[in-house]
Design a protein that fits this description.
By secondary structure, the chain is mainly alpha-helical. The chain is built from 7 helices and 7 strands. It has a domain of 237 residues: Substrate Binding Domain Of Dnak, Chain:A, Domain 2, CATH 1.20.1270. The chain is 57% helix and 6% strand.
């Protein structure tokens, strides 16, 4: 299969259509074809035309699909067993009896799909592999449609729930990084206080001469270094710790809202699926009743039997209409869940990229502050180096002797 093309389903495009550059064709969960511009993320139900301003299919209109809609992936390969299958490709409402009709063609269509937790997927043995929207990016929107077995128990975890767990774990990691930086700040503050205290120590304060000047500068350099580390700790707080701690303060609350929204859509989907099953069962009973009354008519002709058949036929037709309505509502619910899943998973992907980039930038700021601190620390000892190079014992001796000399006359021998 060539990139940008998907085999058209029965009843739609009868031949492969060459799309303009940058456009790809996909199928919604109900089998309705839509088009995605992989450059601009624009989506439309209308087949794009190569000629600007000329619509390709009259009467079609642009739909409020999400900015980028998933070209979901089927489970036809060993790497993706049925438990991890992605979204189903189905016909639109015109094929709404797939879930309930007993005709051979509809039954065959039903065998082409499987239902897992009320979500309809293409059967891996009959459905060709579906194209991914972002085949080279391992995007969230391509790989989290089905549920996954919980390794801790016998239950399952929804693919969307796994994404939420990753988001919340990322928020926790970010919080722990902020706590780590806070501990680093505390070390800097304690170190600065100890340096400042040591700089005030009076030990060896009576050293004289050029060596005494160098020693005094050593003590002063400690006070200067203490100031450097205090500034470093203050910048760590304002430029690293605080942004890490405050980034998306309401993130957990927002994720819960998002979780509840998707969960509500899944509940609605389960409810619609139950209605389909109930309507299918009712149709089967009505068809069985109609068949039984038809057999009675063959045995014994009477006006009453014919009337019963007409009544049974009306009930069977009504049951078929009810099933069509239930299937249509189910498909609408699944389509809504599909679109919200695409929009939300892409948003979660964007948020994760944003979080990682934010942390990277602030850690880069941390290393930059460290480099600056090392440079400032080096500058505090440069005056010490200069004075140490000027230490001159001979000069110091001369100055000291001049100041403290008691006399230059040497003693001589005593005469008799």
């Amino acid at each position: 299969m060539k990139p940008g093309m998907v085999p058209p389903p029965p009843g739609e495009e009868s031949q492969t259509v060459i799309l303009p550059p940058g456009w790809q064709s996909y199928l919604s969960p109900q089998g309705r074809r839509y088009y995605v511009n992989t450059t601009t993320n624009e989506t439309t139900w209308e087949r794009p035309s190569s000629s600007p301003g000329i619509p390709a299919s009259p009467g079609s209109h642009r739909s409020p699909l999400p900015p980028a809609v998933n070209g979901y992936h089927a489970s036809g390969t060993p790497a993706h067993p049925p438990e991890t299958a992605h979204m189903s490709v189905r016909k639109s409402t015109g094929d709404s009896q797939n879930l309930g009709s007993s005709s051979p063609s509809k039954k065959q269509s039903k065998e082409n799909t499987i239902t897992i937790n009320c979500v309809t997927f293409p059967h891996p043995d009959t459905m060709p592999e579906q194209q991914l929207l972002k085949p080279t990016e391992w995007s969230y929107c391509d790989y989290f449609w089905a549920d996954k077995k919980d390794p801790q128990g016998n239950g399952t975890v929804a693919g969307f729930e796994l994404l939420l767990q990753k988001q919340l774990k990322g928020k926790q990691m970010q919080k722990e990084m902020a706590e780590f930086i806070r501990e680093r700040i505390k070390i800097e503050e304690d170190y600065a206080k100890n340096l400042a205290k040591l700089s005030q120590n009076s030990l060896a304060s009576q050293e004289e001469g050029s060596l005494g000047e160098a020693w005094a500068q050593v003590k002063k350099s400690l006070a200067d270094e203490a100031e450097v580390h205090l500034k470093f700790s203050a910048k760590l707080h304002s430029e690293v710790e605080k942004p890490l701690m405050n980034f998306r303060e309401n993130f957990k609350k927002d994720m819960k809202k998002c979780d509840h929204h998707i969960a509500d859509l899944r509940k609605q989907l389960a409810s619609r699926y139950a209605s389909v099953e109930k309507a299918r069962k009712a149709l089967t009973e009505r068809q069985r009743d109609l068949e039984m009354k038809t057999q009675q008519l063959e045995i014994k002709l009477s006006n009453k039997t014919e009337e019963d058949i007409k009544k049974a036929r009306r009930k069977s037709t009504q049951a078929g209409d009810d099933l069509m309505r239930c299937v249509d509502l189910y498909n609408q619910a699944q389509s809504k869940w599909f679109e919200e899943m695409v929009t939300t998973t892409l948003e979660l992907e964007r948020l994760e990229v944003e979080r990682v980039e934010m942390i990277r930038q602030h850690l880069c700021q941390y290393t930059q502050l460290r480099h600056e601190t090392d440079m400032f620390n080096q500058s505090t000892v440069e005056p010490v180096d200069q004075l140490l190079r000027k230490v001159d014992p001979a000069k110091d001796r001369e100055l000291w002797v001049r100041e403290h000399k008691t006399g230059s006359i040497r003693p001589v021998d005593m005469e008799i």
